[in-house]
Design brief:
This protein has ten helices and two strands. By secondary structure, it is mainly α. The protein has a two-stranded antiparallel ribbon with strand order 1-2. Strand 1 and strand 2 form a beta hairpin. Helix 6 packs antiparallel against helix 10 and helix 8 crosses helix 9. The protein is elongated.
Length: 260
């Protein structure tokens, strides 16, 4: 994780640290009327740090991590073998092993990407807390349920319930970082008197991330089976979730316009 990534205390709070986390065997972490519905369009590139399209000039190692991220998001860590990934990328199995000696090493590279993505969100946390419209735009750009980083986060997070999962503690820490960012947004809103009196910022942040990850799964399971007449959309659902914590309907906010 980048040097600026927040560390967690026993209560789950986050503060900047200059020490790069140990990736091997660290201890597990402790720890309104609806706003204008944002668009359901494909996520923008703003929040996809490290997950851009593969280019011919890119380093082969980075290309392998790209392909592994796609395969792990689609099939899970246990469901995608090194041979599957090398075939997906179009290189030989021996070529794969030249860059990554094991599947665990490749998973480390993929989680590095997820940490870069989380760092982007952490860096813009203050902007996200500006108003409800800023948070909705952040959901579209950083936490879009159909984006590769979020689909990957949802899949690996679910798999990491297994105690023998190589990325178990890093994935738990990543989830806590995302929860903390969203919690800090709701805390800022509460300080300005924008939330309902009974709204708990910590719970609101955890609940919002849980809905994000749930929708990431839904986008790959339920949505492909739906008829086009269904008007539900992931960002619309997220806007409704955000609205449940707010005191009343906000003034006009510049959020993405709704789409079918």
């Amino acid at each position: 994780m980048s040097e600026r990534m927040a560390s967690r205390d026993a209560q789950g709070s986050a503060r900047p640290t200059e020490k790069t986390p140990n990736r091997t065997a660290s201890a597990p972490p402790h720890g309104t009327a609806a706003a204008p519905a944002p668009s359901a369009q494909t996520p923008t590139s703003a929040g996809l740090a490290g997950f851009g399209p593969r280019l011919a000039s890119r380093d082969r190692r980075e290309e392998i991590v790209d392909g592994a991220a796609e395969m792990f998001a689609e099939h899970g860590y246990h469901g995608a073998s090194l041979r599957d990934i090398s075939s997906h990328i179009g290189i030989s199995h021996s070529g794969m092993l030249h860059h990554f000696e094991s599947k665990d090493a490749l998973l480390d590279g993929v989680i590095d990407r997820l940490e870069e993505h989380a760092q982007v969100a952490l860096d813009c946390a203050e902007e996200l807390a500006a108003d409800r419209g800023a948070l909705l735009r952040g959901l579209a750009e950083v936490w879009h349920p159909a984006s590769l980083p979020i689909r990957l986060l949802a899949t690996l997070d679910a798999e990491s319930v297994s105690e023998d999962h190589h990325g178990r503690y890093r994935m738990a820490r990543l989830r806590r970082v995302h929860e903390h960012i969203l919690e800090s947004c709701f805390s800022a809103f509460a300080e300005r008197g924008l939330l309902r009196e009974d709204a708990d910022p910590a719970f609101a942040g955890r609940a919002l991330l849980a809905v994000v990850l749930n929708l990431a799964v839904r986008e790959k399971t339920v949505r492909p089976l739906q008829h086009r007449s269904h008007d539900d959309a992931p960002l619309k659902d997220l806007a409704m979730q955000v609205a449940t914590s707010f005191r009343d309907e906000p003034a006009e906010e510049s959020a993405p316009s709704p789409e079918a």
